[in-house]
Amino acid sequence: MTDSSSVRLDYVSAGCNRVVGALDWSEEGLIAYCAHHAIAIYDPATSSIVSTLLGHTDTVTCLRWFKASDFGGELNSSSVAADQPHTLALASGGGDGSVCIWLLIFENSSQPWTLAATLPAHKAAITSITIHNAGFPGQMVLVTTAGDGDVSVWSSTRPLKNPASLLSSEENWHLAQRLSYDTRLQHCSAITALPSEPNSLLLALGGVDGKVRLLLSSSQESNHNNEFKLVCELAGHQNWVRGLAFTHLKDGSNKFLLASASQDRYIRLWAITPAGAHPSASRNKRITATSTINDSASNNDDNSTIKKGDKSTTLATSLMKFAPRPRFSSPYSGIAYQATLEALLIGHEDWVHSVAWKPRKDCEEDDESPCLLSASMDRTMVLWVPDKATGIWLSQESVGDAGVNHLGYYTGVWHPNGTSIVAHGFTGALHLWNRTENGDLIPQPAVGGHCNQIVDACWGVDGGCLLTVSTDQTARLTTKLKKTGKWCEIARPQVHGHDFSCVTALPSRRQEQKLSSTLAGGEGLQIKEADSRYLYVSGSEEKVLRVFEAPGAFADTLAMARGQPLPSQGTLAPSTPAYGASLPALGLSNKAIYTAEDASGGGGGGNVSGSAEPGLGEGGYNEYGPDVAPNAAPNAIAGPPLEEHLAGSTLWPEIHKLYGHGNEIYCVAAHPTGRYLASACRAQSTSTAGILMWDTKTWTFCANLEAHSLTVTQLAFSPNGKFLASASRDRTLAIFSSNSSSSSPDAAESDDTIEFSLVSHLKAHARIVWGIGWAPNSRLLATASRDGTAKIWHIDATTGCCIGNAAVATIQFDKIGVQCVAFAPKEVSHGKCLAAVGLENGEVIVGVVSWSEASVEETTSLLVEWSEIWRTPVIEKHAAAVRRICWRVVQEEGEDGAGGDDKTAAAAAAAVNFDLASVSDDHSIRIFNIDSSFLVES
Q: What is this structure's pTM?
């Protein structure tokens, strides 16, 4: 094994799960959100995911940070980077019905996160988690709701003075109560203490029947288990209640508010006050202007009467004034409380998913007005505040996306200091707004990622961009910004109507010219002239291959990301006929836009050449600022783009469709020269399992290669371009050899068609063969299979036949299925190369493959050895099967050598750093930087 410092995790991206309650912001400034079976910890200060937590066996559905008040004291609130170590705690619920409690110990750099406990709370997916101090120092209550119709109440068995005391917390927690509601599922919950009674807890439950149920628990002794009892029900909502939140007012009236959000598009504010309090006149008017309450009957102590001469008194006011109100009393103090409708907030046009009160510091005395944040599927988040003069609740601000490419928000939360808000949406991205000094909420770039399985990836464009496709029906491009040195998504070339299955990038001219210098031990390709455009080909659950070309707006954006001159100023970036693309309504094909003016000036687009105009800011807005909704139009930006920009303003035009397959496309590969494509579709017979060859010079079909009887799972051309290898579900490996030398100077531009013929076809594994990969010398071929092995095969450099028809090395992985395998594109030393495999359990393993020639009975063979040097630690591994891994050489100059000038062979030979990208069914992309200098030195 190698020193862990030789491998560094550079980048992680993962979309947030499409569930309510999947996001929370800690008092230390860290954002936690649910990402597939894992929890992602995002640090807005560094704009990066700092850790992922694995503990659930199903989708994570909700989470909640422990607060200082939950422990009855103040915790160390220093920043993450502070020298003083401290501990954070987090609770999460999943589709597996369990609650996981996590600890972050900052002083432990090797294993900062610890899974302290797993509580078997439910038999179905958990929908909400609520945590509150029980009223005694260190005593806590944890409440969960779930799809099994139960509400579980967990209590701490001993004082928990700080998060560190949660260690071994399976002994610190016990199930105090289980409430069953059968088919009346309780979807959300909120808990608070009664005013001046910290040991009297009021639990609110929101059900699918539209009712809000209030339950009261009161305890006078520490560790005394007093159960929650139903005291009243608040009716009014006409659909599921999706969010609840309590807040206490600071006016000395012991009044507190409960906000409830519902799928009926309305928000109801319930005022809970001591029964003897008399509502003010302004408050009566406010209730009259909203609606009446349909609640459980109770006595009314309001002795107010209607004055006959009062013309302002209406029938609605009279009914509300004397209508019975829900009432309950505290068993501890005997104080009676009543619940009334404070306000009905109308403004959202779709389901309201969450509500959150703005945090207020204890020292704030001048700001008594509460502020409510609501998130809705109508693509907006609204801030609601009461008018200081009339007390009527009004919409103060609204933020969101006015475009057509966004589908609303699930959860909105506040920064603990109340200066920022963040939400997650349908596309899986986080949407962040910061409050500026002048009081405006300005959108900021935040983490995003695929929100469904990522099925394929490759290094494309100029070799410095990672292209990924997913079953979330998007293709995304990720690159490293020179200004910040961080990776980020800069384009979304394709937003499709079908789930993707595969992708491949056609090499640019400079990549082709570099190929001869990056090969080690094989004949290099000498390309005289080739297509300098940036192209990629994708396949999905349709019978068509689609070809896309990078537009001018992308070339401008990429140049600015790399700190290079714009194309109009003489850069080597390719010139393209289209400036951008747009997707017609109900269409699947991106249509080219040839000038920036054709885009109708949306979103602050630059001129035809993409040069930055004075109105073009780093966020991609025009001079009118973010309040003016941009059109979904192409435009180049200098900084990390917002999700709204990526969703509709970074499309690539579709230039060709390739028809020929009879079933859905499954895999595709590009020849190293970019001259040929090979593709295969889903198949259950030999007639449909053929591999189709395409000539990219004419974009026409040129051959059908038959070998397999079931679906071909992966295709790969050898680095020297002479051979094509295929793996299949029929457990076989096939190798095809070309009839001409692909290394001739005019190979890419020749009018002669290269023909491939089958030279080897053998059973490779006992189960499905998922992946294949060529070594840089084109003499070794690796296969990966579900049978838990990876095999290395010796290929004849002249004929392409598998020498001996048997593997020269077999690597066992403890019966864990191997999903993919790939060699590094460059040898680290003579006879030594790095290789990586991705496993079904989410691990990525890197090893050294070394080979040497041996002569046996006048026959030369290769002796191949595998030596594992590194595997992903728990905090860096994927939560599901790794679908694809791909390497690239990191150069010494420029932005990792991406888009820089060509290097000499000597400089290229000295490069020993690699970027290894892995994508997974857990929606995440991970890029590891590997320094192989220790191998060169050895």
A: 0.86
